[in-house]
Amino acid sequence: MPPTPPARGPWKLVLLKLSGEALAGPDSVGIHRPTVRSIADAIAQAADGETRFGIIVGGGNMWRGKDAAADGMDRATADYAGMVATVINGIALQDALERLGLETRLQTAIEMREVAEPFIRRRAIRHLEKGRIVLFGAGSGNPFFTTDTAAVLRAIEIGADVILKATNVRGVYDKDPRKNPDATFYEAITHHQALTSGLGVMDSTALALAMDNSLPIVVFDVGDPANIGRAARGEPVGTHVHNPEQG
Fold it and tell me: Which of 61, 109, 141, 231 is deepest in the core (most CB within 10 A)?
């Protein structure tokens, strides 16, 4: 008997995880403003209905803590620098969203009161209830943890229905499709399969936390920003990572 396909949206509350590279667009590094505007427009359209959005942006377009640590920098210090980079990205995306008339709040795990609110779970939930888009910066505020883990943590804290992980490939494959044309695409996979097979959906800490809390993850290509809305509506886009009991 074939496995039951996982339940899908439309989702009422999503946590959108954007890589820093997604904001770099064709420039590969830095912030490409036309790309940011395109992503903001797609979020605005997706949030126009009943779906509420929390957002976490990485900082890889500006800084990679692991790379700096490998070059001799203290790892904790390097990770803190990466957290600051995520806040810069958050400010850029916040500005693009507000130029479209959306109400937003930026919260950070490291206090930067002149530019953002400190992360307070109850306040974040209240903002979401009022229809505001909440951006979460500075990861979890702790070194040695990725923004993937921070995304899962924040999603659980705010009671999100799903994590929408935007990437630069269609979804999850058994190997890197950019290097292997024969790579097999997975339309759906369990957390356990992703974790034990090392498929690169998220780091192992993030995947284990999502699995323990039965939090589904939709991995999709943000090269077409409209996929953000499709994923939020529960349309069959990308790869759906789920627990078997969620089917």
Answer: 231
